[in-house]
Amino acid sequence: MKKILLMLLLLVSTMQASAYDFLRAVKDSIPGGYNFWVYTPIDYFYSQEQTPVIIFLHGASLCGRNLERVRRYGPLDAIVKGRQIDALTIVPQNPGGAWSPKKIMDVLDWVKSRYACDTTRVYVLGMSLGGYGTMDVCGTYPDRIAAGMALCGGTSLKDVSGLGRLPFWIIHGTADRAVPVSKSKTVVENLKRDGNDTRLLYDWLKGANHGAPARIFYLRKTYDWLFSHSLLDKDRPVRRDLTIGLDDLRRAYGDVRRNAGAPELIEGPSVIKGEGHEY
């Protein structure tokens, strides 16, 4: 009886809590490394070792040493606005310059040593500078990342063959004036040239500017796609039955609003043509 009452009390307290109650800021805990947020999903008490891990890499405009800045957009903002993401969500802050794959792995190892999670289901996604970081991390550590998604980015890797070893999705707007779509197309062409594209998905969003892909972080299907991959999958095939197009981007914030039950319009970056935000 006491156990049942305890469970009911825990359930009630969880229902009353907000997303902010499940966020933890980690600062100066890794010598020379990144500061970061860790979001613990609401049902983490029950999922523990079955909990997947998401690592989100932001763009250049959020670089610095004010950790609050990296909550402006991306998975953490989506969670606050009502999107349920059942994963340990790690959001490091880059103080400036290119993302370091080694430092990202240091953050992951720090979290793994302190939180129970499913180490076979770790995912990386990011946009702009974070899109570069996502390709660099996944291309460097394909045996540690179950799947990746890079938006409006590119890569600094001279050898991109590692990106062919895991399910990977590249998305870029054709009207992007901050990071030309050619940066992503070059990666795709190199993988295809070497016959290394069997696990690759790519989409060029016609007329979409640099800010448009940010809405992808608010779509349920983004996380459904990521979570469907595991390091334990035989031959690690890519899931191809989900698509993301301009119609999805147009609906993204409205979908989150309906899921959250919020009456107000969720504002976000412009989607098609025109000037987007700096990411």
Question: How does this structure look, described?
Answer:
The structure is a single chain. By secondary structure, this protein is an alpha/beta fold. It has one domain (20-260): Alpha/Beta hydrolase fold, catalytic domain (Rossmann fold). The chain is 30% helix and 15% strand. The chain has an 8-stranded mixed sheet, covered by helices on one side. A hairpin with an 8-residue loop joins strand 1 (23-26) and strand 2 (35-39).
List the defining traits of the structure above:
single chain; 279 residues; alpha/beta; Rossmann fold; 8-stranded mixed beta sheet; 8 strands; globular; disordered C terminus
Short description:
This protein has eight helices and eight strands. By secondary structure, the chain is of the alpha/beta class. The chain has one domain: Alpha/Beta hydrolase fold, catalytic domain (Rossmann fold), CATH 3.40.50.1820.
Helix-strand string: HEEHEHEHEHEEHEHH
The CATH architecture classification is 3-Layer(aba) Sandwich
Q: Number of DSSP strands?
A: 8
**How many domain units?**
1
Rg result: 18 Å
How much helix, percentage-wise, in residues? 25-40%
* Physical arrangement of strands within the biggest beta sheet: 1-2-4-3-5-6-7-8
| CATH uppermost class | Alpha Beta
What is the terminal separation in angstroms?
52 Å
Q: Summarize model confidence as the mean pLDDT.
A: 87
Uncertain stretches: 2-16, 260-279
